[in-house]
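Annex B.
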Amino acid sequence: MRYKLVMLDVDGTLLSTAPHASQCVRSAIRRAQDQGVTVGLCTGRIAKTCQTLVEALALDSYSVYYSGTLLKNLITGRVLKKHALPHPIVQEIVQFARAQAIYLELHTEEAYLYELRNSYSDFQHTILELEPIYADLSHVDPSYEILKLQFVTESPTHLDRIAAFTRQNCQHIALSAGKAPGHPTMDFINVIPVGISKGQGIREIAADMGIGLEQVIAIGDSLGDIDALEVAGLGVAMGNAEEAVKERADYVAASVWEAGVAEVLERFVLA
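Cof-type HAD-IIB family hydrolase: predicted structure tokens.
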């Protein structure tokens, strides 16, 4: 099989705790591109926080951001698809987070908003390298297009309550979960419109390219990557991935610290 599209998760897949990909990963991506293979990102991150990475890797293609709500080429600025959350649903989630004292962020295309200052807000500011907007979330301007909401917590009780809230509102919202390398106890719970996912984003990008899903490789490490791995012709779990992700993958690569992405490209694209 000649693969034509490779979609990479960012945190825990392309990047570890460093802000840039390793030299061998950069080299493998460049050689794959030289052979005509399109490489894109498939991440829950805010698009703007990936700008430097996209430019460094010359990813002149559509990528999946916010776990599927924005499909955009950051080099050209072109948007393929955008899926915002309805404002009433956003306000309902804000009220829930307030009542439960759970840290919550609202992500727009250009920024993120929060109102609860704690260790999580400090952590996010450091990781995202993007100046947040401190705001009263109960009075968010309806003109804001909220592409994703994100809970950050280390509390199993919070996770249970978020899951219960989602079950009550499953006709409107869906969840995807993620981890940060080096912070195994911290859970990032993404809230996006129902029917939207990383996997759906890959479908839409492949359709735009005019290729079949069997020609796609997706690589990830977290529970939020599973549907992307299952959609792609070859779904790859990183060696540092959660066991549930490895069980659903077609292939398990080396860890992010061992340049697993380079291994996959060498084995399935460049060989």
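The first strand starts at residue 5 and ends at 8. The chain has a mean pLDDT of 92. Further annotation is deferred to the next reporting cycle.
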